[in-house]
Write a structure and sequence with these properties.
665 residues; alpha+beta; Methyltransferase, Cobalt-precorrin-4 Transmethylase, Domain 2; Arc Repressor Mutant, subunit A; 4 domains; 4-stranded mixed beta sheet; 24 strands
Length: 665
């Protein structure tokens, strides 16, 4: 259904005005040399980029104001522009393929001017790449948050390979034999197969016949060529043999729970020569670790019989197998599975063959490695096509955990699934929002409360992120965000040409962390108990020799100081390299220190804006406006030179060191 069919003209115009240069919207003035309108050349890069990504809207006849909002300039001769558009997109010398239909382009009248709205659908796997001209290399684009970018040669090659091959794991490997199979892995598979399907006829076959029926060995009917397939080698092969076939093969599991001091992981599984290194052994080792201490009660059936696997166990297994069977093993990026205090991350190389919104709905499957999928199904480890993700989502809903977040990341191309084992509203988040907004927060819709809670918990939010969490169309998310901005509850921050949002604070004098130097920095993103724990001790003098001591990265050390409960503090704060991955919701997930406190620690050794922005993964302008300028005003930071000097850096003042508890009041 087109936008004009769905809405009347007035509402359509209001929605267009609300849209910004988001991930799936691009506005172009398109006035032409004569001022009557023309199809701009830059449109075709956007068409290619959106078609090769997740689709989107291109609006002709709109200019961007300085604040990022849209001003309708209009197209005087919209009919001619539409005709020129169709003539060009249907010309194979100009554009590789037309994936649009007649309803994809419409003329909308807003504010007494005509606009041309073009809706670009996501191209199917077999249609990609969509490119300009006749040569895909150098003329294929994809969409990033910064706009349209030209794809590298290897990215284009991957699109072409996915387009022509339904199965990527059925290729027969030259010069590989049954001797490249790890016998122990195949025997373990047979045992699991027999436990899952004890009467299955495949169990009577010898190893070669079993592999052939599973897709691990194949005979080409036309050429009579036969041999081990990529699926057989990946699933049961020896590590040395796998590396010979796939030099970039990488599978990695990291347990980031129960970390001590500056540990990066407490447990890790990756090929190291002590085990086969194939996918089946990786699956058997990792699954047991993922669910080892899962805090979900077992179910009881009639007769008090315990079910040893809950729906959460099944969902985690499904997520692990999905990462393995949908991965593109020809890419340089590998499989990464992470267990962390708040949940799990499953990351596999390659873009999703099915649009993410259809994955959420279920019922549609286009597996990149169907033979691997069949092998896991034979041991009861994979759901039928298209049903896996809904099963994961429903299991999480029954636990009242945050909605699973599935996303594609374009560079490098990976699909990432985040499974959070925490509720959407942690108690401290809800408490903080009620403190800020009182009854106003309680009067909001559930979706608006979810947006604010996410903005506090994740430090800031974007339209795209909220689409995943709320399962809403981007224009509906825009409407909710705009309303919260109008209510003074969210502040819009411009990041490049796009916007992110964070909870409003400046007009809340009673809660402004910069109103008083006696308050701890940035308490708005902490619960009351966290605020109390993070206040400087002031009267407690550091132990001898510890005053002002810093590690090699310029971060303050704590020499066995105790918190208010008498527990020993960590012997060392996070290193600079660790800061980006540990910053969540405006504070460190390890030390629970606010970002301003982290800045003060970093600036014990002078740092420039560029250095701080890189370490904290923040936009430099946003960093200056939101943090360092305020820390300068409150005398917690000082300049090392004139503020306008190109070599100026920030340095923590004595007051800042006092805030860190390094000196007495």
């Amino acid at each position: 259904m087109s936008l004009s069919e769905e809405l009347d003209n007035q509402v359509a115009c209001a929605k267009l005005l609300a849209l910004r240069e988001s991930y799936e919207f691009e506005a172009k003035d398109a006035q032409g040399r004569d001022g009557n309108g023309a199809v701009p050349n830059a449109l075709w890069a956007s068409y290619s980029a959106m078609a090769n990504s997740d689709g989107g809207y291109i609006l002709l006849g709109a200019a961007e104001n300085s604040d990022g909002s849209l001003k309708f300039t209009g197209i005087k001769n919209a009919g001619r522009v539409v005709d020129d558009f169709w003539n060009t997109i249907n010309n194979p010398d100009a554009v590789s393929r037309n994936i649009l239909h007649q309803g994809s382009v419409e003329v909308i009248e807003c504010d007494d001017v005509n606009l041309v709205l073009i809706r670009v659908e996501r191209a199917s796997r077999k249609e990609r790449p969509i490119y300009i001209g006749k040569n895909p290399f150098g003329n294929t684009y994809k969409r990033l948050n910064q706009g349209d970018y030209r794809c590298r040669r290897d990215e284009v090659s991957q699109m072409i390979a996915d387009a022509v091959a339904d199965a990527r794991d059925s290729d027969i490997l030259d010069d590989f034999t049954i001797d490249d199979i790890d016998g122990d892995s195949l025997r373990a598979f047979r045992n699991d197969f027999a436990s899952s399907k004890p009467r299955h006829p495949y169990l009577t076959f010898d190893d070669k016949d079993l592999l052939e029926h599973l897709g691990g060995w194949r005979v080409d009917r036309k050429t009579q060529r036969e041999g081990l397939t990529l699926a057989g080698l990946l699933m049961f092969g020896k590590w040395k043999s796998i590396r010979e076939a796939l030099p970039h093969y990488s599978i990695d599991y990291q347990d980031r729970t129960h970390l001590v001091d500056d540990q990066r992981w407490s447990d890790r599984v990756l090929p190291d020569g002590t085990w086969s290194g194939n996918l089946y052994d990786f699956y058997r080792r990792v699954y047991s670790k993922l669910v080892a201490d899962l805090a979900v009660p077992f179910q009881m059936l009639e007769g008090a019989k315990r079910v040893d696997e809950t729906d959460v166990h099944i969902a985690i297994r499904e997520a692990l197998i999905n990462a393995l069977v949908h991965a593109d093993y020809s890419l340089t990026t590998g499989i990464l599975i992470v267990k962390h205090p708040s949940g799990f991350i499953f990351r596999n190389p390659g873009v999703s063959r099915v649009p993410i919104d259809l994955v959420y709905q279920g019922g549609v499957s286009d597996c990149r490695n169907p033979s691997l999928q069949l092998m896991f199904q034979m041991v009861g480890g994979a759901e039928k096509a298209g049903s896996g993700f809904p099963k994961i989502r429903h299991a999480w809903e029954r636990q009242h955990w945050r909605r699973p977040a599935l996303s594609e990341k374009p560079s490098p191309e990976v699909v990432e699934l985040e499974l959070f084992t925490v509720g959407l509203y942690p108690e401290w988040v809800t408490s903080r929002l009620i403190t800020l907004f009182g009854d106003r927060f309680k009067q909001l819709s559930p979706q608006e409360r979810s947006i604010l809670a996410t903005a506090v918990y994740e430090r800031r939010v974007s339209n795209q992120r909220l689409q995943l969490l709320l399962d809403l169309h981007p224009t509906d998310v825009t409407r909710l965000l705009s309303n919260l901005v109008d209510l003074g509850m969210l502040v819009r921050q411009r990041i490049s040409r796009w916007y992110e949002y964070e909870v409003a604070q400046g007009d809340m004098a009673r809660a402004d962390p910069y109103q008083s130097q006696q308050q701890t920095l940035f308490p708005l993103l902490l619960g009351d108990e966290d605020v109390a724990a993070s206040k400087p001790t002031g009267t407690r003098k550091p132990s001898k020799g510890s005053q002002g001591r810093k590690d090699s990265q310029g971060l303050a050390r704590s020499q066995g100081r105790k918190d208010s409960q008498g527990h020993l503090a960590s012997q060392r704060h996070a290193t600079i390299e660790e800061v980006p991955r540990r910053i969540v919701a405006g504070f460190s997930t390890v030390t629970r220190k606010p970002i301003p406190t982290t800045i003060l620690e970093l600036c014990l050794e002078p740092k420039s804006t560029a250095e701080l922005a890189s370490i904290l993964d923040l936009d430099p302008t946003y960093l200056r406006q939101r943090y360092t300028s305020r820390l300068i005003k409150t005398n917690h930071l000082e300049y090392t030179a004139a503020a306008t000097s190109p070599d100026v850096q920030y340095r923590t003042t004595e007051l800042g060191r006092q805030m860190l508890g390094l000196v007495e009041d």
